[in-house]
Design brief:
Radius of gyration: 16 Å
Distance between the termini: 48 Å
Number of strands: 6
Order of helices and strands: EEEEEE
Largest sheet: 6 strands, antiparallel
Shape: elongated
Structural class: mainly beta
Number of helices: 0
C-alpha cells in the first residue's frame, strides 16, 4: 500500500533543527532517528508583542519539504513536494 494511504504516524524521536535566525528564508535541515528532511521557506510571518517584562516573538515560515521520514512500520515515506510550515516561538512571561 502506498505511504499516503497508510495514515499518519507520530515522530517521537528528538530532532535537530538547523536554521539561520538571521535569515529565516534560507533552507532548514531537520534530522534525527528516522528523519532526513529539508525545508525551503518561501514566506515568513513574524509576530511580536512586547509589554514590559512580558513578550513574545514568533517566526512562522511556510515552504516546501523534501527528504523522507521512517513510518512506524519501518518503511520510508517520501516528503518531496509537501507544502507546510515550521515555526519558532519565544515567550517571556
Amino acid at each position: 500500500m502506498p505511504t499516503h494511504e497508510r495514515g499518519g504516524c507520530k515522530i517521537g524521536a528528538s530532532l535537530e533543527w538547523v536554521y539561520d535566525r538571521s535569515d529565516w528564508l534560507r533552507p532548514w535541515r531537520i534530522q534525527g532517528d528516522g528523519v532526513e528532511v529539508g525545508f525551503t521557506p518561501f514566506h515568513e510571518k513574524v509576530s511580536r508583542t512586547e509589554l514590559g517584562l512580558v513578550g513574545s516573538e514568533t517566526h512562522q515560515c511556510f515552504g516546501h519539504f523534501t527528504g523522507r521520514v521512517r513510518a512506524d512500520d519501518g518503511q520510508w515515506a517520501d516528503l518531496d513536494g509537501l507544502t507546510g510550515w515550521a515555526e519558532e516561538a519565544r515567550n517571556r512571561w
